[in-house]
Amino acid sequence: MKSITIKGSQRESVGKVSTKALRNAGKVPCVLYGGDKPVHFSAEELAFKDLVYTPNAYTAVIELEDGQKFDAVLQDIQFHPVTDKILHVDFYQLFEDKPITMSIPVRLEGNSPGVKNGGRLLFRKRKLSIRALPGLLPDFITVDISKLRIGQTIAVETILNDDYTFLHPDSTAIVQVKASRTSVDDSEDEDEEGAEGEAPAEDAPQAEAAE
User: Fold this and answer.
1) SS3 (DSSP) at 84
2) Cα four-point dihedral sign 201, 1, 131, 75
3) HAMAP family this protein is in (predicted)?
């Protein structure tokens, strides 16, 4: 999995006064958990842009001014209720031999013949929670819809992988194609060469929000 570097400064004081001063200076107070003891540090708010405001999943490398480096994953983030400014970020330290739980985005691949024949593509799970060693975390989970016809569903049980464990029931639907008023008979095998691209997200208003 790709990582983003966050350069920070270790915090000497963690009281309300110092925290307010940091925020006024455009910095975000952070805590790194998971090691021998919590590490309190701060970083520029702009440093979190590519880590927070993205549908992709990344790990982080925390680089402190004293030379310390920590591999980590974003665990929790707090936003101001009015301005949406980042108020606080919690990280969890990664170790090569300890599994970690993360939500990984799903990427659809291929052209669905069911969509070509007028069916509606419903993207039920845009992210899936998995548990894996840090070195085996994927950037995304690929789901092939090139054989997905009207009335069919692709569930978690069809994409099981030895590198990680899904934290969902095997029967959890990821993507499916439903019949629509304009759909045609989709039961016959047909040449799928040149099939139209999958339906964009806006064509599937019934799809659940990303988890």
Assistant:
1) coil
2) negative
3) Ribosomal_bL25_CTC
Q: For strands 86-93 and 69-79, give the pairing.
A: antiparallel
Rounded CA gap, 29 and 202, in Å?
37
The pLDDT tens digits of the residues spanning 148-186 come to 999 999 999 999 999 999 999 999 999 999 998 776 776
Polymer length of the chain: 211
Contact call for residues 114 and 152 (beta carbons, < 8 A): yes
Digit-coded pLDDT (tens) for 3-23: 999 999 998 777 788 888 888
Distance CA 39, CA 3 (A): 19
Hunting for tokens 């060693």 — which residue is that? 133
Identify which of 209, 199, 201 has the alpha carbon closest to the alpha carbon of residue 119: 199
